[in-house]
Amino acid sequence: MKSKQKAFLSSLIPGLGHIYIGLKSRGAIFILGFIFLISVSHISYGYDGSLGGFFHGFTMYRIVNILTGLAYFASILDCLICYDKIFAGKIDINDEKREKIENRRLISMFLSILPGCGHFLLGKSIKGKNYLMIFILLYLLSSIAGMEMFRIGIIILIILCILDIYNEKISLDVNKQEKEEDYSDKFRYIFIGAGAVLVIYTIIYGITNFLSYIGYTDIVTNINYAFNLSMNLLIGLVLGFVLIREGYRFAEKREKELDATIQKEHQEEIDRESEENL
Question: Cβ distance 162 to 109 under 8 Å?
Fold first, then answer.
């Protein structure tokens, strides 16, 4: 039997722990995934660290570095969880169908560094399109307005994409995939809100530039401070409520899955007792 301690030590290098416990393809995906993340974080972003040197308020590589750190600890945890499940008989390393599904899920999670791309890989084009549009909106608002909360919003959006893929039911047979729900109505409020913020920013930008031109620099400073403070507070509150709501939904879903597992095990036990009595 393979040692859990050796599995942990091997997992300090992403992917090696999975290879050690027999999940070779999963380990290879983790290795390639980390090479991908590190490569993205070292892309040249322009003289001030912003993508392409055009949007000077936004630094994507910092977000990628944060996600790389989170992914590193997640890979160690995943290795240890897989170890326990393998030796508890809950994972069959020879089950090719399960392995393909889980590998596809893992690749999609790495691709979600650009929100929506992972969903496109799974055939969830409606979700993918909406997530990608929200990312572009947040990117533009963060770049133009230079607000810290929009950058935090991008990190939260990426994490929500990854969690959504983690909970997604995946089928290798396209004909057996569940019909995708249209989320346009749910996402439209985000687009409306982002559009409203952009309109307000454009108006204030024009006013402050005019006031600055005619010499009212003190008023411009006060207006900019008040606008940035109010927008950051508003966005922070909205993001906070979204996280709380998603947290409750995630907990409820896990509770239902646990209840279903308990009921299934209880039914199997009843069936075994019935067979023994016969």
Answer: yes
